[in-house]
Automatic annotation (TrEMBL):
Keywords: Antibiotic resistance, Cell membrane, Membrane, Transmembrane, Transmembrane helix, Transport. The keyword Transmembrane helix applies. Pfam families: MFS_1. It is a multi-pass membrane protein. PROSITE patterns: MFS (PS50850), SUGAR_TRANSPORT_1 (PS00216). Gene3D superfamilies: MFS general substrate transporter like domains (1.20.1250.20), Multidrug resistance protein D (1.20.1720.10). Coiled coil: none annotated. The keyword Oxidoreductase does not apply. It comes from Streptomyces flavidovirens. It is found in: Cell membrane. InterPro entries: EmrB-like, MFS, MFS_dom, MFS_trans_sf, Sugar_transporter_CS. Its main location: membrane. Belongs to the major facilitator superfamily. EmrB family. This is MFS transporter.
Amino acid sequence: MTATSLAAPPPALSARRRWTVLAVCALSMFLVGVDTTIVNVGLPEIGRGLGVGTRGLEWIVDAYTVVLASLLIVSGALADRFGRRRVFQCGLVLFGIASLACALAPSPGLLVAARAVQGIGASMLSPVALAIVVNTMPDPRERARAIGIWASVFGLSMAAGPVIGGALIAAFGWRSVFWINAPVVVAALVLVAVFVPESRAARARRLDLPGQALLTAALFLSVGVLIEGPHIGWASPTALTGYTLIAVTASAFVRVELRRREPLMDLGLFRRPPFVTAVLGAMAVFVALNVSLMLTTFYLQHGRGWSPLAAGTATLPMALGAFLCAPWSGILVGRLGPRRPLLLAGGFITVGGLSLVNLGQDTNVLLLLLAYLLIGIGFGFANAPLTNIAVGGLPPSRAGVAGAITSTARQIGSAVGVAVAGALVTGVGPADLARASHTGWLLVGACGLFLFAAARTSQPATTAKA
């Protein structure tokens, strides 16, 4: 979720039309969020269907999230320049075509490539849709309500992905998690054409192509090393070369950004301790969520022999917790500031993760469901205060970029979470999956604890909107 630079005053729309625009954009946001996690529950079935191991399955998930993370900011800039509705429609078309390619993919390599193209399309939806909503609703109170609903949809979509995926796979097979996107995309295209007005920024930012290329390279190298590390060896010459390339591309990115008049990323924001902890906190929350989902998928399906539908249904408490607590968190942030809801988020995620540190082959299902509920509640409470801390106290001209960086951090966290969880279970037999996951659940608890540090840097009250 992000916003782009300020636009010229939009034409007045009726209240019904404004909320219809929100509904259309929220539908697209739900699609992007669901596709970040819906594939997780289907990974064992995809592996059997295409004959691919854990490393290949990780790339199927992370090809989407890494591309999405690396292109979020530039997609917002393109929308400001060429028109938000136009870029949004292009994103829907590209996302839909890539989804069909995923559903028809005959090999792991083609599926990974199609997922990467899906990520390109998704990058044109998430930031652009929110910019459309902000531009459509000039009243601050109405806009705050709309963003609160947006946060709820975003949290629900991420947590609901495995539930929806499990039901689809049980009924129609793993390819259905991609087929289902087609009718949603068609409906969204029609609704956008009918209801969403065109808008542009009064002054569009210049594109930073060198910075974009270096950021994408650094992210792919980092995630690639995490995924391939268990196979090639963490101290092998190939891994050492990877570490060197990561350091070189990251350093080059910083140098390029510091020298550009209009950089892709405003690195000056990282001089603000609250912003840094908010970005790291956003990353930690999504590491925790994706580690939880990946470990749950492999543990329940491989370790305990559950079906995809049963494994997806088991994560329903996580989706429910996120859905109920995301809007409540927004209300608390507005009334009390970000600190208290962030402390709640940290507490729930920490307790949920640590309760599974001693996970066994026959751990009581009620304990599993309770842990998933706690993690979901923590996830629901986390997003609004972290966004609030990131943009709090900034002028509008910088708040949009701050929100974009925070959104990028979330997707990076998703990719890292998948890579770390996959590294823990690579080459592990079904009987040892529970034991192998202990480190992952400890990491989930540590991510929750980090939110307490983020809460310490927040202000007791703030006027910024989540």
